[in-house]
Design a protein that fits this description.
This protein is α/β, with parallel strands linked by helices. It is 39% helix and 14% strand. It has a single domain (3-338), classed as Histone deacetylase domain (Arginase, Chain A). It has helices at 25-36, 38-43, 54-57, 63-75, 89-105, 135-145, 161-167, 215-233, 259-275, 292-304, 325-338; strands at residues 3-7, 44-48, 78-80, 83-84, 112-115, 150-154, 173-180, 204-209, 237-241, 279-283. The protein binds zinc ion (ZN).
């Protein structure tokens, strides 16, 4: 059976102006790539995303925030300095949320669904970092309200501050973010000491990666933290989000994964879901620079276990090289914070 992937032509209106690093042509380009690649075309079924309703957005956002977005779009103002509101963008954001939500609705029948989503910087009452509404959180909250245990694994280079904000006090959604160290990158959140509060204490986990981290460093973090914690949490559904921005060519970040590293992220995340008998949702909207859709392709081929031809830059970092010392230190620091909650 083909894997469903949600899309709508209105995704192409999710842009912030011609000088903004988020290029909305990415969506249509990726659909073209899927159609022109025989292996991917045979594996993926593209389905139309509906627009999320107010009621669905209110699963995670406040009424006040919905009104704020509407006003900002009407007046052409900004949600934050990096997120100007153009006409049509809220409708495009609703389509993206609708796609992730429809992916979540398939979790009873299908074991996997995809969407070009992952707007993880939008919180309950705020939008920033090119994110208007948080589709990751809407999908997770929908599943949570149906009694499912949900793990969100955020592998975007930027920490998922909006998702963290929404599930900060929840023990039903495990939020793990692996990202470039917050002292060197927006949003400046996601230090090891940020572990959630109240019922949610221990259910937010942040793995800050040093600049130039490569596949060996990511592998270390997966083996030491991500794999063991997810298997103890035993999710019904694993949602991975994050696009190509951990790639060394990315124009906004300083990590050093190559295409093989991105393939590793997709492949390993899917494997973890399968090992734990969990459904799997993959959301890959992010990435900046010239190699965004190539990066998405690498991630997706990993997720779907498809053969991948790798370009000639595959020499950066082998898992056998072992992790760098600064990361090993950071991971042992993180363990001190989460040891009361998890065997790590
Ligand atoms: Zn990012």
């Amino acid at each position: 059976m083909k894997t469903p992937m949600f899309y709508h032509k209105d995704y192409g209106n999710y842009g912030f102006g011609s000088f903004h690093p988020f290029d909305p042509k990415r969506f249509a380009k990726f659909v073209d790539i899927i159609h022109s690649d025989e292996v991917m075309n045979d594996a993926i079924d593209i389905l139309k995303s509906p627009a999320a309703t107010d009621e669905q957005l209110l699963l995670v956002h406040s009424k006040r925030y919905l009104k704020h977005v509407e006003d900002a779009e009407k007046n052409g103002t900004r949600l934050s300095p990096d997120t100007p509101m153009k006409q049509g963008i809220s409708e495009a954001a609703r389509r993206i949320v609708g796609g992730s939500l429809d992916a979540a609705k398939l979790m009873d029948d299908h074991k996997i669904a995809l969407n070009m989503g992952g707007l993880h910087h939008a919180g309950r009452d705020f939008g920033e970092g090119f994110c208007v509404y948080n589709d990751v959180a809407v999908a997770a909250e929908y599943l949570k309200q149906r009694g499912k245990r949900v793990c969100i694994l955020d592998t975007d280079a930027h920490q998922g501050n909006g998702t963290q904000d929404i599930f900060w006090t929840s023990s039903k959604v495990l939020f793990i973010s692996i990202h470039q160290h917050p002292s060197t990158l927006y949003p400046g959140k996601g230090y090891v000491k940020e572990i959630g509060e109240c019922d949610g204490e221990g259910f937010t986990i942040n793995i800050p990666m040093p600049r130039d981290s490569n596949i060996a460093d990511y592998h270390h973090s997966f083996q030491e933290i991500i794999r063991p914690v997810i298997s103890q949490f035993d999710p019904d559904v694993l949602i991975r989000n994050g696009g190509s921005d951990p790639h060394h060519s990315d124009s906004l970040t300083d990590l050093a994964l190559d295409m093989r590293g991105l393939e590793y992220l997709g492949r390993t995340s899917r494997q973890i879901a399968s090992e734990n008998g969990a459904g799997y949702i993959d959301l890959m909207v992010s990435g900046y620079g010239l190699r965004v859709v190539e990066g998405w392709q690498a991630i997706l081929k990993g997720v779907l276990d498809l053969p991948i031809k790798l370009p000639s830059d595959q020499t950066i970092g082998k898992t056998s090289d072992g992790p760098r010392k600064s990361l090993v230190k950071e991971i042992s620091e993180l363990k001190k914070y989460i040891e009361p909650f998890w065997k790590v």
